Amino acid sequence: MSDRHKITVNVNGKPFNREVEGRHTLADFLRHGLELTGTHLGCEHGVCGACTVLVDGKTARGCLMLAVQADGSEVITVEGLAKDGALNSLQQAFMDNHALQCGFCTPGMLMTLTELLTDNPNPNEQEVREAISGNICRCTGYQGIVNAALAAAGKQDG
C-alpha cells in the first residue's frame, strides 16, 4: 500500500499538482519538490521560525505542517514577496534598516511580519516585538528588524 498522495497547491501564485509522501513536511516539499530554498530549516521543531510561510494568509511553520495538509491551499514563501524582481516595502525596509546579517532568520521574519502588517498595518513597537517573539535571530539583536517593520508600516523614516 502506497503512502503517496496527490495534492494541488498554489505557491506564490502558481498552481502545482504533485504526488507527495504522507510524511513529507511542507518545508521539504517547498525546498526539494519545488526548489524554493528560501524557506529555511533550523530546528525542525517549530521553535526557531526560520521555516515560516503563509498558508491561506496565516503564518505556518513549514517544518511542522505536512505537505498533504496544504492540499487546496494558497502558500506564499519569501520568494513570493518580490514582484517582477522588485523588493516589496518590507524587504526594502529590511535593507534600509540593517535588519539582517547572516540572513538565516530573514525569510521567516519577513513572512511573520507580512502577516502582522496585513492584519495590523499600523503596529506599535510592542506589537512588532510580540509578533516576532516566535522567530529566533542570533545576529541582529532584533532592533533593526523592529525598526524595519515600523518603517514599512510608515511609523518612521527608513
SSE diagram, text form:
Elements: E1 4-11, E2 14-21, H1 26-33, E3 52-55, E4 58-61, E5 74-76, H2 89-96, H3 106-119, H4 125-131, H5 143-152
Parallel strand pairs: 1-5
Antiparallel strand pairs: 1-2, 3-4, 3-5
How would you characterize the overall build of this protein?
With 158 residues, the protein is of the alpha+beta class. The chain folds into two domains: 4-80, Ubiquitin-like (UB roll), CATH 3.10.20; 89-152, Orthogonal Bundle (DNA polymerase, domain 1), CATH 1.10.150. It is 30% helix and 17% strand. A five-stranded mixed beta sheet has the order 2-1-5-3-4, sandwiched between helices. The longest helix has 14 residues, at 106-119. The N and C termini lie far apart (57 Å).
Strand arrangement, largest sheet?
Answer: 2-1-5-3-4
Q: Residue ranges: pLDDT <50 for 5 or more in a row?
A: none
User: What does the largest sheet look like?
Assistant: 5 strands, mixed
Tell me the name of the CATH homologous superfamily of the largest domain: Beta-grasp domain
What would the average pLDDT be, to the nearest integer?
95
- Between the first and last Cα atoms, what is the distance in angstroms? 57 Å
Helical stretch tally: 5
Q: Using DSSP, what is the number of strands?
A: 5
H/E series: EEHEEEHHHH
- Number of structurally distinct domains: 2
CATH topology of the largest domain: Ubiquitin-like (UB roll)
